[in-house]
Amino acid sequence: MCARTQSLRYRWFRWLNAAAYVPFGAGLMLLLLLLLPPTPVDAGCRRLVQKPCEAICVRTGSINRHIVRQEFEVRGNGSTGPYGARDGWTCELRIVVIMPANTSVEASLPRVQPVLEKAEGAIRRDGIIPADVAIRWIPFDDRCEQARATVMAMDGTGSDSCGHLILGPSCDFALAPVARIARYIYNDGIPVITGAGYTFDFEEPKTHCENEFHMLIRTGLVSFKRMAFFMIELIRHFNWNRVVYFYERQSYYNVAGPQTGHLLMNTMAEFFRHENITYSPFSTDSARTNLTESLKEKVGLSHASEYYRHVKPQSATARER
Ligand SMILES: *[C@@H]1O[C@H](CO)[C@@H](O)[C@H](O)[C@H]1NC(C)=O
Ligand SMILES: *[C@@H]1O[C@H](CO)[C@@H](O)[C@H](O)[C@H]1NC(C)=O
Ligand SMILES: *[C@@H]1O[C@H](CO)[C@@H](O)[C@H](O)[C@H]1NC(C)=O
Ligand SMILES: *[C@@H]1O[C@H](CO)[C@@H](O)[C@H](O)[C@H]1NC(C)=O
């Protein structure tokens, strides 16, 4: 009994000793935190009066009937999930989905909506958000157009829909204006979450209001910058330093909508420049003659080089048989 108290006392003493080593600054910080009242967090890029509908939970008496009725007309089905009502409060998370309806683009409404339904199922099953918070999807077809996407973002965040979050747009050209204005919508800005945004501008830092795409969150793994780095590795490996870049301006419409080929070329050009690689872009739709001729003309003698083949003819033919 006596031994145990002693060891306890000893431990207590050791702890005190260790505590003495805790940097003085930390203690001071704690004191300051206790003395100063917490300052309100100011996340927005411009100060605005908060609209009542911006809140996820509102008193049931004040629920905006107009919103509910309009949505029934849009979706035919009304809101999904249990309609949240808790002790006189109604909670609803409104998610604006801006995507083309044209299935030529991979991330189009008809293809993505079933995935969102699955996602909602998972959210409900795992209880990621409280069960009494309803989720409402508000789809808009932007046809991959800049102007349409911008107006849809305004509509989706106007007092009729009052969305809390924007999913999409999935075309890079339509994404740019939406991601640009998102920081000035509402007092705190509205998050824009997209799997697209392949062009290098979307990968620039976004931590401050001054950053162009401050409210954008890219979830995709692929970007044109990564592809450019792959190309640069390849070019370095072979010790090349001149590139003729043949590209189709409108190719890969399914990936990022209009001018995907052009955007990829832009990104590559940007990083080729950083690496001092001389490049000469050539858009095939500007070709005056057929491609074979264009290739001869562009590559010509200024970009071609000699190379030696070390192939044993016998073994090559033997392998083919
Ligand atoms: C409406 O919802 C039901 C189930 O809740 C579903 O079976 C039906 O396909 C939906 N209709 C439309 C048009 O989305
Ligand atoms: C979808 O987009 C492709 C490519 O731009 C176009 O050829 C096609 O006509 C569009 N389809 C519809 C239904 O608008
Ligand atoms: C490119 O060239 C500039 C000036 O000649 C040089 O300062 C820079 O280090 C070079 N960059 C690379 C990646 O070689
Ligand atoms: C391209 O043009 C050249 C002559 O200008 C011609 O010999 C060649 O057959 C053409 N190729 C094709 C695929 O039309």
Overview of the molecule:
The protein has eleven helices and eight strands. The strands form two sheets. Strands 1, 2, 3, 4, 5 and 6 form a six-stranded mixed sheet that branches. It is α/β, with parallel strands linked by helices and 321 residues long. One 2-acetamido-2-deoxy-beta-D-glucopyranose (NAG) binds next to loops.
Give the overall shape. elongated
Name the quaternary structure. Answer: single chain
Number of helices: 11
> Structural class, judged by helices and strands?
alpha/beta
User: How many strands appear in the DSSP assignment?
Assistant: 8
Sequence stretches where pLDDT stays below 50 over 5 or more residues = 1-8, 66-84, 315-321
* CATH topology name of the largest domain: Rossmann fold
CATH superfamily name of the largest domain?
Response regulator
Describe what is shown at a glance:
The chain has 321 residues and is an alpha/beta fold. Strands 1, 2, 3, 4, 5 and 6 form a six-stranded mixed β-sheet that branches. A two-stranded parallel ribbon has the order 7-8.
